[in-house]
Amino acid sequence: MELHVVINGRKDLAGQLYKQLREAIESGRLAAGMQLPPTRLLAEQLGISRKTISDIYAQLTYESFLIGRVGKGTYVNARPSKTLRKQNACELASADRIDAWRALQSPLPDPTLTGTVKREFVGGATSKGQFPHDEWRRCVQYALRQMQRSIGFYSHCEGLPVLRSAISQHIAFCRGVVCQDNDVVVCNGTQQALDMISRVVLEKGSVVAVEDPGYPPARLLFASHGATVVGVPVDQEGMRVELIPDHTRLIYVTPAHQFPLGMPMSLARRTALLHRAEALGAIIIEDDYDSEFRYEGLPTDSLQSMDERGIVAFVGTFSKTLLPELRLGYAVLPPAILEAVMKAKQFMDWHTSTLPQWALARFMSDGELQKHIRRCHGIYAGRRERILSRLNGDLSPWLEAIHTTAGFHIAALFKHPIDLKLLIELSRKVEVGLYSIEGFYYQQAPKNGLLMGFGSIETLDIDPALDRLRDILLQIDER
What we know:
3-stranded antiparallel sheet; 16 helices; alpha/beta; Aspartate Aminotransferase, domain 1; single chain; Arc Repressor Mutant, subunit A; globular; Aspartate Aminotransferase, domain 2; 15 strands
């Protein structure tokens, strides 16, 4: 790779090179620790004598811009860099649009930004200690061999055929989804699936119905496309279908495990939802985010398996079963929007990276995903049981768990007013991470409660953490 230096004419060659190297180092474009080309190579690149370049390197070394390492070469020395002026957004014709994006709230709190604590009840996170690193490493090595055999061009925008097949078999087995391999589009997590569908279905002003409370990243994404987002209240049976407004074009639901409250949508409500969507000509997005982990009761059909009119898009992710950092998800699309969504995917990023696709396909075909889910299921079931035992025991004077049968979080509502902000603040001081459900409400009045994730907290940390929660509640309860 050549060093970017521009020589104009043949006058003062040494001065031109010296000035450009010094400015590049001062601005930070040449970062500390970066190795400069050997004098011979740079001389050939620029058509300057090797001695001239050696003299410039020597001068910059004397001024502490460079440092020489015997037998290794010449490197940029560590020093403070000047801050370059950036163009201000207000100077742009698109300033108003940029400001609108900047004003959007962050979808979900990121515990890594505020600093994690020892005992985290954060939702949607898994423990890396449960991830089968050795098995995954073997699958990545297989993926590298597959890529080595390829012609080195772009891949299928809808995903590798072998992975689409593995996904269709997996969700048919686990969730009863009715689909063919060609109905599946591989994407970078559920969020991209929602974005692709939104681009195809929505226009500015289109009405989107979402659960309230619900999943903020979905609601904010729909709004970013210019949609009019309406929060539809939920009760113990799920979204109240009769309150879905007329002219709704898209309906977003989490029927297997309502986010964040956790209850499943009843069969009667699912049937009503399908009839309502058909009457509206609306597409339903069924987000099946963590339903592989079910602990009690009989399995429930996916909404997609009940769909006879081709109006349900079933989206899922491997962020919950494996790791969020992998950014792998999928959408099972009805025929009416399949081709259009594939075009949208191609325009967005051409295709999802093939390396993790090959690895995941091998991981699934070898049965490692099912083994991992079974192993985690036993661990999560034990953690869930321990939290419920405490919520129904010594924490019951303050909290009541909402009944849920799947997933790896529990929503618990306070039975009487509590200063939740103070509770969360005091808990962090004793290394316990708690999270309110208030931010998941949109147009409905928020309830006072906690979202208690048990995917990342270690089993042995649960009781000590809940002991501290109980002690703080005893301290701040003003009844």
